[in-house]
Prior knowledge:
The chain is α+β, with helices and mostly antiparallel strands. Helix content is 40%, strand content 20%. A hairpin with a 4-residue loop joins β16 and β17 (268-272). The chain starts with 5 loop residues before the first helix and ends in a 5-residue tail after the last helix. It is found in: Cell membrane; Membrane. Zn(2+) binds at residues 356, 360, 379.
Amino acid sequence: MLFHNLFGIVILLLGIDSAVHAEHPTLRKWNKFGDLVDTSVPEQQDNSAQEFRYRLPTYIVPLHYDLFLETQVHTGNRSYSGRVNIELDIRQQTKTIYVHSRGLRITSNELYLRNTPTNVTFLETLRYVEDVEREFVIFSIRRAIAPATYTLRLEFEGHLRTDEDGFYISSYRDANGARKYLASTQFQAISARAAFPCLDEPALKATISLNIQHHPSYDAISNMPVSANAGGPGYEVTMFETTPRMSIYLLAFMVSDFLYTENYEAKQRVFARPNAINQTHYPLEAGVRVMNALDEHLGLPFNSYMPKVDQAALTEFSAGAMENWGLCKYREEYLLYEPGVTTYRTQTTITTIIAHEYAHQWFGNVVTNKWWSYLWLNEGFATLYEFMAADMAYPERQYRDLFNVQVVQRVLVTDAEESTRPMTFSRGATFNAILSLFDNIAYSKAGSVLQMFRQLLTEPVWRSVIRAYVERNEFGSVGTDEFVDAMMDVTDDGTDLLPEHVVIEDLVKSWVEQPGYPVLEVRRSYNGDIILSQDRFYSNKIVNDDATHWIIPYTILTAGDPLQNPLEWRWLTSKAVRISSPATNDQWLLANVNQTGFYRVNYDPSNWYMLIEALTNDTTSIPLHSRAQLIDDAFHLARSNRLDLEIALEVLTYVRHEREYPPWEAASRVFTYFNNRMRGLSNYALFQIFVDTLISDVFVTLDVTSVTPDERLLDKYLRQVVSSWACRMGIESCLSDTRIALEREVSGEEPVHPDVADLVYCYGLRTTSTTAFQYLYSKLQASDNRAQRSLLISALGCTIDSEQLSEYLRTAIGSEPQVNYDLEERYYVLTSVLTTREGVDALIQFLMENYSYVASVLGTNILNSLVQAIASRTNTPAEEQMLNTLLVVLDSVLPATAIASAQSTVSRNLAWPSTREGVLLSYFLERFGFQPA
């Protein structure tokens, strides 16, 4: 599943300063509108007891659901009714049956003994109580029943939810502006119980037969193909084939007037609102390509499990995307593709998200985590294959080359915090406790660790492992042990993988069951020896006596080694060891080549300087992904005081010779950090000269505003990241080129190519007339393409004209007849201005006057997030005074902890110039006197 929220979109909207969004959408796992959950690590003992209290008893096992639902959603009516027959395997004598239910009213119940498949005996109508806190309906049986198969028949009533969870109502505007309603589902993790009474745990798999009654003007779709239709005056009943044995959270259905595009041979369709059906051709093509690639790669064809797969684009879907078996659902901007409008970055997002959800058809659907503590087994595989499968479907785009910079390097930052958790972990069984596990540990870290295992095993062995893992556990549920068993079975045939004293289980669990990751310290004696050691890496401290250790696979490359030759795997299984050096004293040495392992690497200063020399003199002598890794590792090692900051900055300076995107993306994150710290300071100009120097040699080779038909995807990313810094640093040619391109579109001479639209619109606005701002605002109002609307909202926030900023922010509180924003887009408008100090000042003034609207309509958490964003961009005493004035106004609205947090952030920002890091950076910039070429 892809869980998207407003905070993730903030990062997307601010993505103009980086060629890749700060997070891929599949990494965003928070509740909609900032309903933050506690992600601290609780005591495991208390956690287990709390979890047990909310879990179903193990003697009740569902076998089959026969579900009927009736809805009048075509009128906007939220009321619906239903009935369900739950076939239960009761495995011990009992007088109690539990089912899950949330917000439903049960109107009747009957218990039957199932003598044979066609013969049932009525037993009784049951008494029951509702445990609202635990979301149980607890049925009491007068006389204890013996182990056997029973059928619990329930009739119930409910209301379609409005929070995009469970069985919910949403809407869209048709081509004539009329509002049309639809009903859809989102059940992961534990919201099937909000639609109908059921046993809502992932391991409790059952088959499902579904019938839906609806208006004849609407159609119903679900996981399975339609088996029959029936009806009468004013209604129709759509009946679906029975599903395979599956987890209840994967059940999905939708009642709407949507149309679809179809590839009949591939048994794939893409559904969308009628006025967006022309945007479904690319996702259909990508879906077919990705599925074919996965079928071939896994050797387990999808159609051996399910007869079809549909994709549906929804205007309102807070989960972002969901892998329901045979019916994947997406927010529109993550699925629909409009030629001439959709950007290359959005196309990348669409393709990789389709690959993510399709990978789930095996990893999550055929084989499912037995409990949410093993969520990483679902999401880690899907994260890995969202890039691999997309790359297999479109090899010319080199999607695999995005994995390290979009996934590995980002989660290395998160997983270095003291509060991080292991991959296998539970916080309990409540809605928020489970939701909190949908984080970048379950997604990005798990995907990175699985990538490490894949490369360690080699591609053929890895494919055998995952095939064994799926085949052995198909239609079942799994934990870590089942994955380990598959690895052991495949590698026990004589594969020389591990040292004799190490077993697969120890390797896997050292990465899966421990929080954090190690830093591999490589200290050369220059006497023929290397001391290798490992410590847990923390972002803010060094703990040399931490007992945690990992079984670390590593490779070593030395100067002169052919880059195309396979490297030998070596192992560090203890805290430290001395080995012979494969490099002579004057040769550099590189470990963890291409960042295959999930850890950082630090070297002695002499080796660092030899690597810097190699990067500068012959950039391609170091493998591509190792170049990005060296920048990323050096920066974070320096920030944690494990490496002299000057060395990290020297590593960074080589990028003026770099012509590939991944190292530039790593460098851009370093630029962003220091830019945010130095903006507003007296020596900020030195930093601008520094950045100008590093980008200039590359920037002069780029055409900022045009795209060639045969341009590589990674070259588009490169142009975006370098050009955005050129404009951000105020390079005149960048600002003039973007202004001219924008003015040419405004005048009707030539439209801006979508692949450079975000750059041109954003920076072109800063030096052009009010007419261009009005043009882009009108374009936003006329667009019904969600991805384009997000781009335009972001671009409009780039203006530095105070009057335009003020007027633009006020549109966020305009009534619907005045502006056609949905609720989330109103929030996007407020965050879009955070890209400049002028925008921050305008937002402060706006909140001074309109904080009550933000708090009441968007929520206090949103107001708080805006305040914290302002605080993070406050660097000077004058800016602090502006924020403090706002905080006084908000004192009665925000909790004291939120105000204290903002003030603490500002205090750290103001103190930064006199910290070790601030002083060292200033000294470096002053001493080296950079000048652009």
